[in-house]
Amino acid sequence: MADRKRVAFVACRHTLTGSPDRWPDAYEHDRERDAFMPAFQAAGLDLVELDWEQSDPARDDIDLYFIRTTWNYKEKPEAFAAFVQQAAGHAPVMNDPATILWNMNKRYLGELEAQELPVIPSAFIDRDGVTVDDVRARLGADEIVLKPLVGGGGFDMRRIRADEPGDDTIPVSQFAQPFLPGILDEGEISFVFVEDRFSHALRKLPAEGNYLIHTHHGGRNEIYEPTASDLETCGAFLDVLPAPALATRIDVVPHQGKLLLMELEAIEAHLFPEYNPQLGGLLAEACARIIAAA
C-alpha cells in the first residue's frame, strides 16, 4: 500500500475540536472538517487538525499545510506571516504564502481598484488627523463604512450614516468604503473556487434592521445560481492573485447592474461545504496533485 500523506487542517486554539477556548462560531470548523475528511481519506490523505501557534514545521511531519480556521491571526499578523513562511520551507502551504501575505491587509483592494477591476472604492488613511468628512469628500459618499485593515467576519466595523457628525478622526489602522444600500435587499454574493474551478455560490442576506450579512450577526444564506457574466467577473479576480490558490472565496455586492468586489478571500475564508457535497473531493484531488508535484 502506498504511504498515506498528511494534510494539516490548520486552525487555531479558538476553533480546534475539544478546545476549552472555542469561539461560538467554531461550528464552521466542524462543518468543513466533517465535510472534507471522508474525501481526503478516500484519496489517501490524512486530514490532521493543527494549531498554527503550536506548530513546529521542522517536526510536524506534514506533506501540505491547508490554511483553514486560523481566525486569530488577525490579532497577531506578524507571527502568522512568520509561520506560513516557515512552514513553506518544509511543505507546500495553501494558499501560497505570497497570496496570504498580500491578502492579509485590505490595501490590496486599492491595488485592484487601480487596475480598474470592479471593486467598491476604498479610502485608505495614510496620516493622523483624517476625519470622517475628509473621507466622505474623497469617496463622494455621505454614508460610509469603516473597516479594519486586518480583520474579517464583520467585526470592528462601523457604519456612519449621512446625518452623523463628521469630525471624528479615523485611525490609520482602518479604511473606509461608501455604504452600498443594495446590500440590504440583495445582500452579498459569495463564489467559491477550487483552484480556477467554480464550485458553488450563495447569497448572504442581513437580518432586518442590520447591514452585516454574517450568520453570527443574524444574517441568513441561500443558494445562488451564477450567470456566465458573474463567473467571468470572478475569473478576472482569480487572475490577479500573486500565486494560484487552492481555495478562494470571492465576495461581491450587486450595485447598479454590476457586481462590485467586497472581499477577495484567499487566506482562511469559510467555504460553505453544505452547498456542494463534492467540494471535499475537489479539494482532496487538488491537494494530492500539489503534494505529488512538490
Automatic annotation (TrEMBL):
Signal peptide: none
Gene Ontology molecular-function annotations: ATP binding
Domain of life: Bacteria
Alphabetical list of InterPro entries matching this protein: ATP_grasp_subdomain_1, DcsG_Biosynth_Enzyme
SUPFAM superfamilies, per database record: Glutathione synthetase ATP-binding domain-like
Protein name in the entry: Glutathione synthetase-like protein
Protein species of origin: Pyruvatibacter mobilis
